[in-house]
Structures are given as C-alpha cells and as structure tokens.
Amino acid sequence: MPDSEFPATEWWQTGVIYQIYPRSFQDTNGDGIGDLPGITSRLDYLVSLGIDAIWISPFYPSPMADFGYDVSDYTNVDPLFGTLADFDALLAAAHNRGLRVILDFVPNHTSDQHPWFLQSKSSRDQRANPKRNWYLWHDAAQPGDDWQPAKNRYPNNWMSQFGGHAWEWDQPTEQFYLHSFLKEQPDLNWRNPQVRAAIYMAMRFWLDRGVDGFRMDVLWLLIKDEFFRNNPPNPQDLASTLPVFTADQPETHKIVAEMRSVLDSYGDRVLIGEIYLPLPELVRYYGQSDDSTPNPQSPTPKTPQLRGANLPFNFHLIQSQWYAEAIAHIIRTYESLLPAGAWPNYVLGNHDQSRLATRIGPQQARAAAMLLLTLRGTPTLYYGDELGMQDIPIAPDQVRDPAEKNEPGKGKGRDPERSPMLWLDTPNAGFTSAEVTPWLPLQHDWQTENATAQSTRPRSILTLYRKLLQLRRQHDTLHSGGIADVAAEGNILRFRRVALPNGHSTDFQLLFNLGNDIATTQCAPGTVVLTTILDGEGSHVDGAITIEAGEGLLIALDSNEGILE
Ligand code: TEU
Ligand code: CA
Question: What is the structure's pLDDT at 3?
C-alpha cells in the first residue's frame, strides 16, 4: 500500500539498521571482550556491507549482571568497553562515513548498584529519603491463617521474566522492591515525575553528544498497575499468568510521547521501541491521535498525528512459523493496521533470540535475507546474520547468561546467539588476539565462514547481503515504494513492490519458495535482478517460473501495465 501522502524522507525510513552486541564484535585490548575502539576499527566493513545506522547494545557502567542491561550510570562508558573519549571518537568516525549511531537505552530498570537505588533502599522514610519513591517498593502482604514470615509474603503474583517472583525482600527497610528481570535490576517508578525528568536528562546527555537516536529497552513494560493487582492465570498454561497488569498499560503511551518530544527537540533523531506485543497493540506505539500534543519545537511536523515511537520494533517475523501463509498473513495484517503516516519495520534476529540460520536453516536464511531487505519498511539486521552465523553449543561451564543460570536447561539462555563475530581465518577469527580466550566460544567453522573468506566467494551469503543492500539503496521502489498483492500459494510467498509516483522507478516482483521442494509459479514479464542462490541474474521471465527450495527472486517488471490484474 503506497503511502504517497507520507513519503519516506527520513534516514531511519530509507536506511538499514545493524545491531552490534559490543561484547562480541571486536576486542582491541586483549581481554577477550569486544569494546568501543573495536567497533570504530570495523566501521569500514559496515560501510562496505551497505548499512546506514548501527544500534549498539548497552556499554554504560554496569556490574554486568545482565551484560549491561543493568546500568549503574546512564551517562558514562564502562571501562570494559572504553571511555567517553572512545565513544566520541566512534561517533565522529561513524558520522564521517555517513553512518548513524543509535544507543540502547534501558529506562525500565537500573542496576541495584546505581546510586539512585542505593539511596532508595537507604531508608523507607520518604521525608528523609527523597529517592524512596524512585523505585517500586511494597509492604509484605497481610498475614493470613497460614502465617508466613514477611519475606515470604509477596505483595502479589507478579513473576520475573528471568524466573521466580518479581519481588525481592529488603530486610533493613522491611519492604519488597519490584524487579521485572533480575533482582539486580530493580524497576524504576515511571509514575514519579522526578524519575522521568532524570531519564530525559540522561537522554539529552547523549543527544547533546550527537547520537542519532535510541532503542528503548522493554518500552511496553515501563508502567505497572497502580493497584498492584494480581495477573490472571493463563488459560493456555495454568502454570503461568497473563501480563494484564504488568505490560502495555495505557499510561505508557504518554511516556512514549514525552520521550519522543525529547528527541524531536533535536531534529532528525529516531525513537525505536523494543516491544513484544500482538500487532493491534504494537501499532498503538506509533502514537495515538487522542493524546497528541503539538510540539512547540517543530510547529509543522511531517506526521502531526503520530507522536509515539518512530519504529516500534516488529518482531512478528521472528515469532512466526516459517510458512508462506503465516508470513503473508503477518505482512498483510501489519500493513492494514498501520496508522496513517506510520512507517513499517521488520526484525529477524537480535541478542535475545535464537539465530535466524539456526531457526530456519541455512538455505531459508538466504530467502529470509531477501525478504527482510525487500519488504516495505526499515530492516534491522543482527550482527553476524550476514555471515549466516548459527547458534553455538554452550557447555555448562561456558554459560554466561543469567537467564540460563537462573533456570538451567529451559532453553532461555541467550549465549548461543551472542558468539563473537567472525572476521578472519587467523586464531580467534580476528575477534581477539590468538592467545586470549574469548568471553564466549567461536562458531566451529570460523576458518571458512568469516567475513574475509566470504568476501572472496561470489556466492556466499555475505555477497548476497551486500548485493541486496546495494539494490535496496539504488532503487527507490525498494527503500521507499509501496507494497501490493502479498499472497501465499502453497510454499510460495509473493508480493510486489510498487514504484513511487515519480515516473522513473521500476516495479519489482518478489517470489520466495519457503518450502523444501522445488516449486513452480507464474510471473509477469520481467528481468531477474537477483536470486538468493546468486545464479540466473539477467534472464528474462514471462509466465511459468521454477523456484528452488529456499530460493528468493527479485524481478524487475517490464512495464507497469503488465502487472495490472
Ligand atoms: O529484553 C526484554 C525481553 O523481554 C527479553 O527478556 C526477551 O523477552 C527474552 O530475552 C526473549 O528471549 C530486553 C533486552 O533485549 C534483554 O537483553 C535484557 O535482558 C532485558 O530487556 C532486560 O533489560
Ligand atoms: Ca576488550
């Protein structure tokens, strides 16, 4: 559906985002852990790959209980990753190359070592302790017939995403505090205006330095029910509950709008939200017209009715089964639910999810690459997916992720998808020096599947990504045009990208065989521009066309009349 009323003009609409997990990208000081100077040293690779922006997972000072998602200082760099000067150098080097830099911001919780929390837990007397209310403290539940010590009388049934109760007892002040994740990650009280102001100030610290936007961690979880009501049981799985009172609370949208106005006061910056919600709820994070407030800084915003996140992350392709009908359904539903002026986006992998090539297999990972980079909307790539990196096996003594340590063997561990980037065929694949043990093991086939080796192979998945990124940049239909006729026929997924109404762009037909057998379909006359097996480009097609299992085809249609039904 071409949205010609709201053409794609912003860098975060036409561009492609690449996520870097800094621990795993490039080590420069021989401690086996990636760092900021490492990212700087690899910017030329990213330019040659053809992406437009990097999003860097947290590098702030942190005790690293959750590898940086437990922040103890929002306005500095952890010595493990470098210094503020290293960050400024990285930002300048990226900007010099035309790359944007997006930071990962973690507003829902801090580290339990953050000075705010240390102060908050120091006393429950709110006059003596102005930060008590910065976090979510609660008395123990009243004792009932089966009397229990206070520390066992949880205020309600809320559970941590990392297992166990979401409440931790603080004996000195005899109250519980809420932690949606680890007990080392106490949740901030987002109803407190002082908390909001403090976070917005920290955002400004980085915006003033020149960062191009934020990916906001767990944006849909910021506000919790003010009456702390119990979550109802999940009818599908009575051992769990539904997050009715802990997620997607209506007041969250006001906060997103506030964050957005902080960014808008700086110009062309982007607000991305990490949001795992069904599509109808997800698209509300673009902003809602009813509580939109005009922004005094930009009196004529391009999309006046949308004051929420620019890109509420769409994870539905990650969560979907890899079937043509399921994927066609997601694309059509998403497109139909997008509010006017909202720009779509798709994600296929991140540091919390099993690797794409492991989930769907190496052959389908090529089709997935073409799908992600030809859909309408901003794609976000996860580092290493361009090499077809897989989940790595993690032996019990190699486990690093607290999500695995807390609940071993439940498949919650995220170490497998965080293994070091593969650069070279030298020991440790160029990630760190030869004699060092990297913080996570390397993928076994690093000698042949590293970026340097794949660069020399004309049919490697890296070559495919480079070509796709080049084509996406080159053709305005691909980065800005419309989408139409999204359909599934058996295992074939198809859609058309529709030229902008400028008279000099091309329509494209996309065809993907998401099954395990060769399949045949029909195509309007056109020229094959790219196939995921990197074979057969330049041939003319008209009518019946055969597609290999896991193959995707990008076809430039001969004329716009040819494809009108
Ligand atoms: O993830 C939020 C989140 O919901 C994850 O727990 C996700 O559901 C799970 O990992 C899926 O496997 C964000 C960050 O991306 C994650 O790395 C952090 O651990 C978490 O927030 C806490 O900050
Ligand atoms: Ca290092």
Answer: 57
Contacts for 222 with CB less than 8 Å, ≥ 6 apart: 107, 108, 190, 252, 255
Residue intervals in the chain for CATH 2.60.40.1180: 482-557
pLDDT of residue 501: 87
- If one residue of 275, 352, 404 were mutated to test the ligand 1 pocket, choosing by the most ligand atoms within 8 A of its CB, it would be 352
Q: Which residue has the tokens 């997916």?
A: 385
Q: How many CB atoms lie within 10 A of CB 44?
A: 11
The Cα–Cα gap between 15 and 2 comes to: 18
Task: Tell me which residue of 557, 558, 545, 544 sits closest to 509, measured CA to CA.
Answer: 557
Phi, psi for 84 (deg, rounded to 5): -60, -35
State which ligand 1 atom lies nearest to the alpha carbon of 161: 6
Q: Which amino acid is at 227?
A: F
Over residues 6-31, the pLDDT tens digits come to: 888 899 999 999 999 999 999 999 99
Any idea which architecture 11-110+192-463 has in CATH? Alpha-Beta Barrel (3.20)
DSSP code per residue over 260-304: HHHHHTTSS-EEEE-----HHHHGGGG--GGG----TT-SS-SST
Is residue 47 classed as helix, strand or coil in its secondary structure? helix
Residue ID of nearest Cα to ligand 1 atom 6:
161
For residue 298, the model assigns a pLDDT of 58
Q: In the chain, which residues fall in CATH 3.90.400.10?
A: 111-189
Tell me which residues are annotated as active site.
217, 274
* Residue with CA nearest ligand 1 atom 23: 69
Pocket test for ligand 1, best of 108, 162, 187, 217 (most atoms within 8 A of CB): 217
Burial zone of 240 (CB within 10 Å; 0-12 exposed, 13-18 middle, 19+ buried): exposed
Residue 295 confidence (pLDDT)? 59
Say if residues 352 and 414 touch (Cβ distance below 8 Å). Answer: yes
Residues with CB under 6 A from ligand 1: 66, 69, 106, 161, 181, 217-218, 274, 276, 351-353
pLDDT of residue 294: 56
* pLDDT the model gives residue 534: 93
Q: Judging by beta carbons within 10 Å of its beta carbon (0-12, 13-18, 19+), is residue 543 exposed, middle or buried? A: exposed
- What pTM was estimated for this model as a whole? 0.95
Atom in ligand 1 nearest the alpha carbon of residue 181 = 22
The parts of the chain modelled with pLDDT lower than 50 are 1-2, 290-292, 302-303, 562-565
> What CATH number has the domain spanning 111-189?
3.90.400.10
Are the beta carbons of 318 and 348 closer than 8 angstroms?
A: yes
Residues of CATH 3.20.20.80 domain(s) within the chain? 11-110+192-463
pLDDT recorded at residue 129: 97
Report the CATH superfamily, name and number, of domain 482-557: Golgi alpha-mannosidase II (2.60.40.1180)
Atom number in ligand 1 closest to CA 108: 23
Q: pLDDT tens across 478-487, in order?
A: 999 999 999 9
